Amino acid sequence: MTTSFDFFNYLNNELYCEDVKVKEIIEKAGSPAYIYSKNSILEHFIEIRDAFEEVDPLICFSVKANSNLSVIKVLADAGSGFDVVSGGELYRVLKVGVSPDKIVFAGVGKTSEEIKYALENDIFMFNVESPAELANIDRIAGSMGKRGRVALRINPDIDAKTHDKTTTGKKENKFGIDFESASQLIKNIDNYKNIDLKGIHVHLGSPIYSTGPYVQGLEKVYKFVQETLDEKGKQGIEYVNIGGGYCMSYTGEKVKRPRDYAADIVPLIKKLGCKVVMEPGRFIIANAGILLTRTTYIKVATWGKKFVICDAAMNDLARPSLYDAVHRAWPVKTDVPMPEVELPGEEKGSDKRLELVDIVGPVCESSDVLAKERWFPDVKEGDLIAFFSTGAYGFTMSSSYNTRPRTCEILVDGDSFSTVRRRETYEDLITGEKEFLD
Ligand SMILES: *Cc1c(COP(=O)(O)O)cnc(C)c1O
């Protein structure tokens, strides 16, 4: 049994990213480190683009999943647009030289400064999340002699059946505008003198493991457009933005691929007769990245519990402590093959080469557990461990909690690799404070 997926492969008992030994990267870059595969990123982008080819979507990569400038550049060069949720993300995307007509801007709390910054740069569209925000964009655009192109983000009141903390399309979530309010806004859109209504946006949360929620969402949108809007209102719905949330496999299990989503979603888009925008994040980047860490100590309690203490922590990878997320972990060098599928809580006690361990970081919090109760091959101090599927919401959610410098990021392309963000230094961490010492 060999494990090979998304350009991360075990060959002769050793992990490679594309054609490079992961060990070789870490010898140069140090640990912990995020490692991304350029060709995996591109393969995922192309897979989603080809699946939806019939409706020729504008694919706007969700920058919050991974905002490294070099990752943005790889996708921009492949023709991707970008979905940003803050002025800072917009700054990053513009720095890379992305064309503003491929940038969409979502978020419930865009400040006046952020709106002004986006209007100055003539971004393609705001995804507006409240009547108050629409009025603010109108006012600011007016004062600048600009027009604000907007899609109304609808909250369709659908349960996307994902984690409580990552669902966004239920009525009690803060996101989007309910249908009733949206209908009022569209009826009165002429009152907003500096606004061009371009369409409707729906993003339901993530990851969404079935097509059902997308279908329900688009059916509700169709019904809304047909039954609620007059001819003029309908003309305002030139675009439908179907958001992100397309799943990828965290556990090695077979999950839906873009073609499966497209099979159910494309007919509804055609029925709506709109141009389409998509905002995939996780699907493109999650499995294109791993977090590499080195074992610092092994601790076995007298009652039997084994802790593998490593040099990465919850500040580097927040998802396990934040959402109970499961990331597969496996030693970089081992003669025990990584299981093709690994489900949490699975009994593997019969395989004598495996022991039950917790893999933990050095941060002073009990929630600093990166992998809980996993059957794991024997590892020693100094051994390297890879955490898989960490390219999305990995580095972008990292912090310097416990005054830990944030990791470096490495991009691999074929048989070469380069640093695309250097590791932070202690000096970096006190910049902005030290000048205030008296
Ligand atoms: C986070 C987010 C996405 C991306 O979600 P993924 O699960 O990474 O695909 C898309 N659109 C909006 C508005 C988001 O907030």
Question: Can you summarize the main beta sheet?
Answer: 9 strands, mixed
Q: What number of structural domains do the residues give?
A: 2
Instruction: Name the CATH superfamily classification of the largest domain.
Output: Alanine racemase
Low-confidence stretches: none
Strand content: 15-25%
**Ligands, ions, cofactors:** pyridoxal-5'-phosphate
CATH topology of the largest domain: TIM Barrel
CATH class identity of the largest domain: Alpha Beta
Approximately how much helix is present in the residues? 25-40%
Secondary structure: number of strands = 21
Rg from Cα: 23 Å
How would you describe the shape? Answer: globular
Tally of helical runs: 13
Tell me about this structure.
This protein is α/β, with parallel strands linked by helices and 438 residues long. The protein has 2 domains: 2-37 and 286-430, Lyase, Ornithine Decarboxylase, Chain A, domain 1; 38-281, Alanine racemase (TIM Barrel, Alpha-Beta Barrel), CATH 3.20.20. The protein is built from 13 helices and 21 strands. The chain has helices at residues 22-29, 38-51, 69-77, 87-96, 112-120, 131-144, 179-187, 212-228, 231-235, 258-272, 282-285, 319-323, 426-430; strands spanning 4-5, 8-11, 14-17, 20-21, 33-37, 58-62, 81-84, 103-105, 125-128, 148-153, 195-201, 239-241, 275-278, 289-300, 306-310, 329-331, 354-360, 369-377, 384-387, 408-413, 416-421. The strands form 3 sheets. Strands 5, 14, 15, 16, 17, 18, 19, 20 and 21 form a 9-stranded mixed beta sheet that branches. An 8-stranded parallel barrel has the order 6-7-8-9-10-11-12-13. Helix 8 runs parallel beside helix 10. The longest helix is centred in the middle third of the chain and has 17 residues, at 212-228. It is globular, with a radius of gyration of 23 Å. The mean pLDDT is 95. Pyridoxal-5'-phosphate is lined by residues 62, 64-65, 83, 85, 106, 203, 206-207, 243-246, 279-283, 392. Belongs to the Orn/Lys/Arg decarboxylase class-II family. LysA subfamily. One of its GO terms (molecular function) is diaminopimelate decarboxylase activity. Pyridoxal 5'-phosphate binds at residues 245, 279-282, 393.
